[in-house]
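tool_call: predict_structure(chain=1)
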Amino acid sequence: MLIKNALGISSSEITPRSTYMRRRDFLAALVTLPTVSRMVTTTDALTPKAAVTSYTNFYEFGSNKGDASRNSGAFKAAPWNVTVDGLCGKPGTYALEDILKPHPLEERVYRMRCVEGWSMVIPWDGFPLANLLKRFDPSAKAKFVEFTSVERPSEMPGVRRGILPFPYREGLRMDEAMHPLTILAAGLYGETLLTQNGAPLRLVVPWKYGFKGIKSIVRIRFVERQPVNTWQDANPVYYGFYANVNPEVPTPSYSQATERRLGEFFMRHTLPFNGYGDQVASMYAGMDPKRLF
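tool_result:
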């Protein structure tokens, strides 16, 4: 029998403890997750951890919100390597421990917004992406950073079904990637990332829609031309490159002016740039706001 709790989440969508424990063990020898600092960008209540870890978009495991927590038991998040290439002075393939160890994790409490009309408030454990990118000595010709997710059909049923044109790809303009709000996350709620949330390493860009937060990153590439992200490739009518939260631009089928916080009943007004306009709006001065989605 499926049991619905106050959040409207089925018991079958909540991660089993055995899976949870396996997923948090792999970083134990690599990084200490207790944070050294905390950045809080909203006074809104945190979304309950059970919701954050069971109600997710991770199409490599399926297209329904509970598929990633149900279908990711075979996924292996260790060992893990990230390839860095393109227009940089220090390309190479780096082990996860080499990516993480020089960067103490911080807790960043961010509002997160998805295009389906729901939102969350999540305490991520991560570090500024800029701190990592600078290590690779990007060239002056590098105007964008492209990210690629892992693609393992044997472990990812959504990949086998071809739900999207995999591997999943995303990109940021260089100034977006270097912005201090942009982080690479290795945990949430003080625990190592679970598979369904993008283990072992994912992008978090809080003023953009959630699909920009590419999960399980295996490649970072510095490029001169704007890359094409996966959703832009799959459905350009709905999804653009920038994906900045803009409540004044509706999709072809629904408004984006309101949102529902996961676990709440009432709708709330969607904020431009998800409420981070004071920090990021200047990067898009003079651009057509409709292009920013």
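agent: The chain has one domain: 11-292. Proceeding to next step.
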